[in-house]
Design brief:
The protein is mainly alpha-helical. It is 49% helix and 10% strand. Helix 4 packs across helix 6. It is elongated, with a radius of gyration of 17 Å.
Amino acid sequence: MLHSPKGRGRHAAFLGVPVGEWFGEGSAMKPEPRRDHVVALRETRLLCLPLPLFAGLRDSSLAFNQFLVQHMNLRLGQAMAIIEAGRMRSTEHRVALYLSRLFWRSTRRLNLTQEEIGQLCGLSRQTVNRVLRTLEASGIVSLAFGRVAIVDDDALAAHLKATAGD
């Protein structure tokens, strides 16, 4: 999860990075100190691309640049969805959004606690629990300790659409 730095006020998570994803390309392209911390919530194997290699690929590879543009466009879409949901949408929509394929494209079993989902959504664990129980009763997710499985993506998409007007 990407967290705001400790010691600067409130602690918040903004993005979970699923298995096989990469992050940090924006920071790698800016000559300034990183503002956020990365916190591994589970045992993690991390592969780091050295900055000179990253810069060399960016300067010489059309395919790498196309990948960067697509990846950064995905992140921009996620950021805009987060801003919109935080300002204009219900708690039900916000939780469903963070479970959607916009953030977890490949995996449908999220090894996240309700507390962690709450950090991502900016909601309390109790609120997340209430929303997840409603989604479970609707057959959209199944819940286990420290895990949420999305069992019906179409129903989750329909729920997002239905709650977008809130």
